[in-house]
Structures
1.
Amino acid sequence: MDVFLPIAHMDVNIAIIIAFGLIVGFLSGLTGVGGGFLITPLLIFVGVPPLIAVGTGAAQIVGASAVGSYAHWRMGNVDMRMALVLLLGSWSGGFLGVHVAKILEHGGYFGLVVAFLYVGLLGFIGISMLIESILAVRGKKKSKAVSSGKTWADRLPWQMDFPVSGLRTSVLLPLFLGVAVGILTALMGVGGGFVMVPIMLYVLKMPTKVVVGTSLFQLLFTTAEVGILQAGMNHAVDPYLALALVLGSIFGTQFGARLGARMPGEQLRLVLALVVVAVAVKMGLGLVIPPAHVFQVSQVL
Amino acid sequence: MKTLWHRILLIFTLLGSIGLSPAWAGTMPDSAAQVITATGTDRIDVTSRFNGRDILIYGALSHPGNIIVVLRSPDTTVTVTKKVQMGPLWVTGKKVTVSHFPGVLQILSSAPLAQILPQATLEKLHLLPQAVMTQAQLDPLPQQPKLWLQQVLESKKREGAFVLRENAVKIQDGRLFSVHLHLPSSIPLGRYTLNVYLVNHGQLLAQSADQIDVQQVGLEEWIARYAYEQPWFYGIALTLFLAFLGLGLGILMQRKS
């Protein structure tokens, strides 16, 4: 069913967009990894302008992550103090990022920057996931070196207690983490869980249960801020795209979660890693293959 | 479709008057020549399901001759970026904004233009692509403006917005003409002008001017306008809506299972 997108100003088969939401939701339900980093490239592949793909990608995460955040908050898995410090950072980062996006788009470089960021980031994530899951499937368990005693993080100023996580650390760490994630959300249309979760686990050393709840909670409000800024400043959020993606991903996540409970996790992560690498390769090829048309003409609204 | 029947009636009345008084038609100078045009529609509603549209243009001519039909949309602005090779990578190079350029320009005729009108007249009536290119404004002005404008023209040809079809207009019995136009799915909104020229022996005998309004209608028009006029309220409303939709559906599905 072809639908004319009022903001992206193009025709798109809306069934394909719903299918994207379903597939990505399904993968994220299966593996527990959020799928924002797959949505934006898929939208770009079907011809959505990069800035609108990024803005809409961020906005759809609001709908896709709302119920999970709410559930974790009800269960008390959100470290509110940590979440607020992170949000202070990510809202600043998001604000900065949306301004950078506007400047890049004005100069005509946004699409190129997005492609570079995706090739780099997805390539890195995909390959590290691939190595990890191949090792896991082979049955080799990496022994984690747990360092005890004082680390560099403990010597930073502005130490603060985070009772829910049961730790004391410098405010600077979550603040900077927040800024980085906010910029990623604005420039790539991702929630940033893939950056936030490992750092919370291994650098901040928060308990796993609290990490999942807190990261979901903060990314809900970060994507909401970035979605509003992208709509307000850059006219970059298409309502039909966002709606179709949210609908698809909610149903997809449910099926994925049910199926995932009955399937071995290592193989699932391997599948996801392969998908991520494939998207990175496709994006990378787009940078190397000579374009069909050296000149690109796009409509200004 | 009252207006359609009205126009058909008008054409037959005109045909009748021409037919019943051949002496009058034959002796009058060319200034009395007339062309009457009707369109299958004078309004095009762009909805979210809009995927292009065929329009029938037809009419009657008082004198034998050739017909040129020109449909032109309001001017639009486009950006042209050039990809340049940097090592193994293709990166975005220069960007030029082209304004005062028609979004849609379709020229259809019953014979090759060069054969039916002299170059000067074609230029005067803006029937040559070059005419479009001379009016355009480029910012910043590149070294070879013609090359960049040619790219805009080529891109518009590919998407079907720019059309030049000679021999497309059918003329029956020297009195009636008809042609089908096709508008692609992505077209600028606004008031389009439809000019029809009756020419003979290199002379412009008569012309008619009509308008076709292309407008976005329904919910999508409201959303698009709201998103542009009140982008902040639109952003906040959409984000809240998506959050509550996700929350509501998620809770509903968890209860069911």
2.
Amino acid sequence: MKIVLLGMNHKTAPLELRERLSIACDDERGTVRDVKNIPHIKEAFCVSTCNRVEVLVHTDDVNSAVARLKNLIYSLGNLTVKEMAACLYTYRDEDAVRHLFKVASGIDSLIMGEPQILGQVKEAYRLCVEEKVTGVILNKLLHHAFRTAKRVRTETAISANAVSVGYAAVELSKKIFGSLEEKSVLLVGAGEMAELAARHLVERGVNEFTVINRTYDKALRLAGEFRGKAAPFDVLEEQLGKSDIVISSTGAPGFIIDRTMIEKALRRRKNRLLFLIDIALPRDINPDAGEIDNVYLYNIDDLQNIADRNLKNRREEADKARRIIDEEVGNFQRWHATLQVVPTIIELRSKIDDITKGEFTRSISWMRELREEERFHIEALVQSVINKILHLPVTNLKEISENGGSDQYVAVVRELFGLEKDRHLK
Amino acid sequence: MVAILFKCALAAYLASTAIYAASLAVRRIAVAKAATWVLMSAFALHTIFIAFRWVETGQSPVISSSEAVSFVAWAIVGLYLAFQIRTKTRVLGAFVAPIALILVIGSSADIVDNFRTPEMLNTSWVTIHVILSLAGGAFFALACVSAFIYLVQDKYLKKRKIDSMSRFLPPLRDLDRINHISVIWGFMLLTAGIVAGVVWARTVWGTELQGDPKQVATLVSWLMCALLVHQRLAIGWKGKKAAFLSIGAFVFLLFAFVGVNLLFATVHSF
């Protein structure tokens, strides 16, 4: 196949090392051009994120390409040979394809199943296409990777369900309220985690956002950030009655919201459902408030438990995803096998024979009126035109294949004459 | 022709129930979606069946008990599908489809018999009375189903146990809304149905109430429904309490519709 993938990720390389390489690769267009300029490398693709750097190439001389690629990475990342040896992995052919599919599907990600990586791979691919460094083989391979990622996402639950506290809060809000539009959120106090949860909710389109803080300035700043309102601390009770989702994370030493406050708030909001999220440590909301009907109280541990369990589920789903990936690797290999010259020539011939036969059948009505000799001459003429046209491309294809590296030509021929489509039809 | 339509509708209800059951087992929305489509086709077949029968017999197709049961099934499914368009509450169908299936099987017992409407009942007042009351009942059945699922989902969320089942069930607020709308519409239709019945009874029997067990049971359940509507609209009951009360109201209503005919001799049995 002659496809090679070199790279390092969060499992093999420490952050500091990945950083160095990632900074060096900052000029993505330049890097990928450098890679492509290495002799014997016919096509190249690079993707670098904060968690990984991957270089994928199609080459006609694997050993020399790998050696030169490694040299390039040494010099780019300013790495020692020892560091390199420890961090860099090299996959060839089938393994390279499988690794790429895994990366695109998010199975290889730090947080398993996170969908971001697919977008990053797509963006990197777009750059490579613009730089014209990819060709028939890598184009096909990358598209295959995108399709595999899509299959993994739709056929397994690997990207489903929240695996962070913030998203768990969003997920629960949806289970309670359905749509989050026209819902109001109250943020009491400000902690990093609470802010994050609030941000997720705002992204999901909640309508109203109010921040209450003991220091009013802080409330104002946060409210500005979320395009919400700020309110002083002494209207807390009143605000509780107006909000559907309350996120509390103050540094108060004891409970600041108790059962009676919630009961009052519930009366004020005519028993509409109320979702309380207590992310503070020590807790802000007295747990007995959660016993009231139509009130759902979750603290940081509850949310963390949900996130942890979901992560466990994702790991279980990974097995399913791996099976899909194996299947798709097989599909790609089958496609690749068609790139051999002889079968393609045979297919091309038989396709053109089919066309000729078809045309003769269509013309049968008027040809019947000719004399047999005339008919024979017409058939011979057509055949000879076809042979003349096919002669040069076929001999050239054979010649190129004897020198190695005919894959791209074969792929182009198959594409141009629609042999790919025919294969699928059959 | 009519019998074939009925059998097709029955088969479609059966298929839909089976697919919904499968969706509950695997907890995949895609499966429930397929079941909804099958249910829709079952509903279409059922609609054509009822229309055909109406035209064929020339009498309103809701008077005999089997026809009434089939009509209730049709109404419940129709209402559910209407709600389904507005909210993402597919899973409700997993309860609606089997209910419809059981009702349709029950109605099949003597559906092809040539039921002749007694002369006394062959007036539009009776048709209106029956259609309104049964449609009201269908609304309450839907309210009961959504209340039941609400209570299950509430239990999951209160216990902070989020697993594949609670993820599969619809959001609380959507369920509560369906319950709310169903209760109010059901109550209005039921009230109108009872009024129509009273008007008819007066013209035939000369008096509105004979203290007939069916009438008493219906009145009791009507009062419960009235209480529920009042609590919801005036007091602002939502969620759990309203769910419990609407299940109770439906049980009473079911008793008035079906139970009374089985247990008591009543002038209301035809």
